[in-house]
Write a structure and sequence with these properties.
The protein contains 15 helices and no strands. The chain is an all-alpha fold.
Length: 328
């Protein structure tokens, strides 16, 4: 498989997952704002500023909007601003462009679904978001990406192309779940007096719902919603498809399938880094991670996922031709 094609399908998956995560982050933030309205106004900068920081776009946001931190500016930045490379619209545009470059290798239905979504999405703006309401509009966006995944899973052959798609998808998902947890952490950081209260449980329920995890959590982790239990579930559950550990396990499976036809790459730096991070998560005592700083712990996980991504790029995409091996 050409490394150029592998890179394009890998990034198509990452952009799609990143777009869905932008919608999920915005959704959990909007729900938390509603829960916190008794303590602060809906347009209080404290309600929306955490989202900008967790998305990693605070410098660009300040450059584009100055000090105007409101629902309108943050929603515009996260969803519709093409100058923000991580906005929902930018990610869908990039995924579409990557898919266009390998259109001859994709089923027609896969291309049509992504192309149609982009053409409809590019006409939207904040007024459309406000007209439908945050919950309905964001559900629409998430639903269209899930529809694309359904089409892709039923149409793309399980060749190396598919496994590069899965690798990009689950590396991005692992990073994104950590950021969703980080939003909640930031929202409560200034005030921990409500921990364990009814309000706290409502907020953690919002976080679980943003990951489509509320029902699954209730079925597998009976008992009270709490910081420790929710963090443990989203970090380390072996069966929930959006947990960080599950996502890393799926990325590991993708590595194994990709290297099955290239045994000389089986023991590669990216796979070793991935195995180390999975082992780290397995051994994590969540209570201790929270006590020593949940934000710092999640930040470390994000940096280690970034290292896996960089190593995968060096191993499969940007390798020197001098080290390339011709397979029979």
């Amino acid at each position: 498989m050409l490394s150029r094609v592998a890179n394009l399908i890998f990034w198509t998956a990452r952009y799609l997952e990143r777009a869905e995560n932008a919608a999920r982050l915005l959704d959990v933030n909007a729900q938390l704002v509603l829960d916190l309205q008794s303590r602060q106004a809906a347009d209080d900068p404290r309600s929306w500023e955490p989202l900008v920081y967790v998305c990693g776009g605070d410098e660009l946001f300040r450059k584009l909007y100055g000090a105007e931190v409101t629902e309108r500016t943050v929603v515009g930045f996260v969803l519709f601003n093409r100058q923000n490379p991580s906005s929902f619209l930018s990610c869908i545009a990039c995924a579409r462009e990557n898919a266009r470059c390998i259109r001859d290798q994709l089923a027609g239905e896969v291309w049509e679904e992504l192309n149609t979504f982009y053409l409809k999405l590019k006409e939207d703006d904040y007024s459309r978001y406000a007209q439908l309401g945050s919950s309905e509009y964001l559900a629409l966006l998430k639903g269209r990406i899930q529809l694309f995944y359904g089409v892709a899973e039923s149409m793309i052959p399980r060749t190396q192309m598919w496994w590069f798609f899965e690798l990009g998808r689950f590396l991005e998902r692992a990073d994104n779940t950590s950021r969703i947890l980080d939003v909640k952490y930031y929202m409560l950081l200034p005030d921990d007096t409500s921990v364990g209260s009814a309000l706290d449980m409502v907020q953690w329920a919002s976080v679980l719902r943003s990951c489509s995890a509320f029902e699954a959590f209730r079925q597998s982790r009976r008992g009270q919603l709490s910081l420790e239990r929710v963090v443990d579930y989203l970090l380390r559950d072996h069966f929930f498809p959006r947990s960080i550990l599950f996502s890393l396990n799926e990325a590991g499976l993708a590595f194994a399938q990709i290297t099955a036809a290239a045994p000389h790459l089986a023991d590669n730096p990216a796979a070793r880094l991935l195995a180390n991070l999975r082992d780290h998560l397995e051994k994590t005592v969540v209570r201790e991670a929270i006590a020593s700083g949940l934000h710092e712990y999640l930040d470390d996980v994000q940096m280690r996922i970034a290292e896996i991504h960089a190593a995968a790029q060096d191993t499969f995409i940007n390798y020197s031709s001098d080290t390339a091996k011709v397979l029979a």
